[in-house]
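Changelog note: in this version the structure field was regenerated for every chain. One regenerated record is shown below for reference.
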Amino acid sequence: MSAVVTTDRAGTRGVTAGGVLRSEWLKLVSVRSTFWTTAVSLALTAAVSVLLGVAARPDPSGGPSNLPLVGASVSLSLVALVVGVLGVLSIGGEYATLQIRSSYTAVPARWPALVGKGVIVGLWSFVLGLVVTFGSFGVVAGLFGAKGVTVAFDGDTVGALLGGASYLAVVAVFAVGLGALVRASAAGITILAALLFVAPTIVNLAAALTRADWLRTAGEYLLSSAGGVLYAGPDPTAIPLWGALIALVCWVAAAWIPALLLTRARDV
């Protein structure tokens, strides 16, 4: 599916932003990987939520419980990998099938098509994140309510749930840029998994062995660690929210700036 192109009276071709977004939307919803990754995300979240709601034994007399918020955030690390895979596949699949040639022929500047893909994949992941976080919270809260446990639901809780959805959107957008940079789905997914799971383990282990404060501080600004600040709720030991947001912007920029530059320069 190529972008919508308009022709003016001078005969020049102009690409509309709406046409590019519609094109990228049709690409996203016309491939099976989108619905498989969405289904996996929902299944993982439902399984974790039901397991926590059934297995936990909170004290009904202990005041409002924040375990539903914990349950809503436990599955986010796995769902982040799933939406990241979707982001990589959304662009890597075009390179694998050579559909990228028709996409960039319809959008000669190239970067609007790539940005449009990032916007659409990010919005899809954000909406999925809302379903995942609020749905998980609702399931656990309902199971706790059946046990006579009061569930805390306040501004901080809503902010954490929205933060979880925002984190998934950030990971998805980062993954699109990463996929455009490496132009191979397998390589992009491997790098993404290493950043989300392997890098935090290595940095934390190195910090524990060397007792280096700078390593411990650096670990707090990794992609998954900074993202955790968005949905973990108030935590005096974590980096400030503004620091986490700056770190996430830097991660996205690290993938997208070279991706945009190389997209214009490299042959397809």
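Spot check on this record: The mean pLDDT is 86. The first strand starts at residue 5 and ends at 7.
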